[in-house]
Amino acid sequence: MKRSVLLIAFVFAAVAGVSAQGYKVGDVATDFKLKNVDNKMVSLADFPTAKGFIVVFTCNHCPYAKAYEQRIVALDKKYKAKGYPVIAINPNDPAALPADSFEEMQKRAKEAGFTFPYLFDDGQKVYPVYGATRTPHVFLLQKTKKGNIVRYIGAIDDNYEDASAVKTPYLANAVDALLSGKKVSPDFTKAIGCGIKSK
Asked: What is the pTM of this model?
C-alpha cells in the first residue's frame, strides 16, 4: 500500500513539475528561429513593425486544431494589420505522429489557406520553453523595450465545436485590450486540445 501511495505521489509531483515549466503571464519570451512551410527560417525579429505576436502551437492532425484553423486565419487577417500577426508552430514529433511531418504541414497550410507562417519545431526545442501542452495553445506577446512580454496564455475562445456559438473570444478580447491600452482580463485560460506528441 505504501509503495502505491508513494508511486501516486511521485506521478503527481512529476506532473506538477511539468506544468510548472514554461512561461507565465508577465514573463519575457525569448525569440526562436524555425523553418516555415516555404522552407525559409522565421523569427520574431523578422517583424520589426509588429506590436506583438499571436503565437499559436497547433498541428495538422488534431480535431481541435482543425476546428480552429479558419478562426486562426480570421484572427491573422484581422490583427496582422493592427500589429499582431499570427505565428503558428507545430510542436509534434513526426516520428511519433507522421501526420505532423513537415511535408504534411506544407500540404495542410496550402489546403487550409494559411495566411501566416506555419513553423516546424524541429527537435521540439521551443514548445517546452513556452510551456505549451496542447494543440492549439495560445501565447499572446506584447513587444516592449524589455522584450516580448507574455500577456495572455490559453484557449482561443470558449467553444471549439461551433464558432457561431462562441460567447467569449478570449484571444480576440486580449488583443483588443492591448490595442486599447487596457489590462488583459482574463489573462489565463485552460487550453483545450490534443496533447503534444513526443518520442
From this structure: 0.90
